[in-house]
Design a protein that fits this description.
mainly alpha
């Protein structure tokens, strides 16, 4: 019985690490597409749109997912599922918009520090309020220490790149906000997944809201701000896989968050992102990339943060 319980905890942790590595891969994929599109809004919109099309096919062709989506609609109509739980895609779209504005100005390194700080802070608040499907989780000393360790770990991991970024306080605050909204997004998607008994139904709701939001913003940029996309289809074929990667991450998160809680999921996901960044920088480095002790130290400290967060304190 004990081994079964341990396996039940280990599986979502391993899956979350893999999801974190997919986030790192998606960042590289969307970055390549942004180079050809000359704007971050197009990769964000493309990611949400292609993911939604795949999910639409799943909803139509997979009866359990279709039933789960219908249950969500019924639950919302009967008010047994709060309408606010359908806003995951809006938070996701907001994250992608802030990312598209901030990264070109301050770089990925500074943006990552702000995101992790915001994500761990938001996760503590969401767990304490009991917004997610995992219920209320107290803000204990080990969870606070683990959050601080995660932020320090990311700072160490990218410290060799921070000197090349001319960050400003305003954009650092935006990056913090982008990370903060990830927590309620994961909480909302997790609750939908539990009600639908399907992570794909939750992902469909998330991507639908994201597509609506990003379509409005992209249209406004094209029609009102004079934004141009000179070469949207000239990127390598793999640069258009952001939607499939995003779909995997959102569906996997909707499945794992109810079991791990938002904070532990966030910490394990950050560990996966650093591992993924290390592998990418080692195998397919971009210009100016160097793999040194900074990234290895960051991975090690993030692992310790996950362990500290998992320590059960006394009530």
């Amino acid at each position: 019985m004990t081994s079964t319980r341990m396996a039940g905890r280990l599986v979502p942790v391993v899956v979350t690490v893999l999801l974190g590595t997919l986030i790192a891969v998606q960042s590289r994929v969307n970055g390549e597409l942004a180079v050809h599109a000359t704007t971050g809004l197009f990769p964000a919109w493309w990611t949400m749109t292609t993911g939604l099309l795949v999910l639409l096919a799943i909803v139509l062709l997979h009866p359990p997912t279709r039933t789960g989506f219908a249950d969500v609609r019924t639950a919302v109509r009967e008010r047994s599922l709060p309408l606010a739980t359908l806003t995951g895609g809006i938070f996701g779209g907001l994250f992608l918009i802030i990312q598209s504005i901030t990264v070109p100005l301050v770089g990925v390194a500074v943006f990552s520090v702000g995101v992790v700080a915001g994500q761990t802070s938001g996760s503590l608040l969401v767990d304490r309020l009991g917004i997610s499907a995992s219920g209320v989780r107290l803000v204990t000393w080990n969870r606070v220490v683990a959050s601080i360790m995660a932020v320090v770990a990311v700072v160490i991991a990218i410290s060799d790149r921070l000197q090349t970024s001319s960050g400003a306080v305003g954009f650092a605050v935006l990056a913090f906000l982008a990370g903060f909204v990830i927590a309620p997004q994961q909480a909302a998607n997790g609750r939908v997944a539990v009600r639908a008994r399907s992570p794909f139904a939750a992902a469909f709701v998330n991507f639908l809201g994201g597509v609506v939001m990003l379509t409005v913003f992209l249209s406004a940029a094209l029609l009102l701000l004079g934004t141009r996309i000179p070469d949207p289809w000239g990127a390598p074929w793999w640069a258009y896989l952001g939607g499939l990667l995003g779909l995997s991450v959102i569906a996997g998160a909707a499945w794992a968050v109810p079991m791990l809680g938002v904070l532990v999921f966030s910490l394990v996901s950050v560990l996966g992102q650093l591992v993924g960044a290390f592998v990418l920088d080692l195998l397919v480095p971009t210009e100016g990339t160097s793999v040194g002790w900074h990234l290895l130290a960051g991975v090690a400290m993030t692992f310790l943060a996950v362990v500290v967060a998992g320590v059960r304190g006394r009530r």
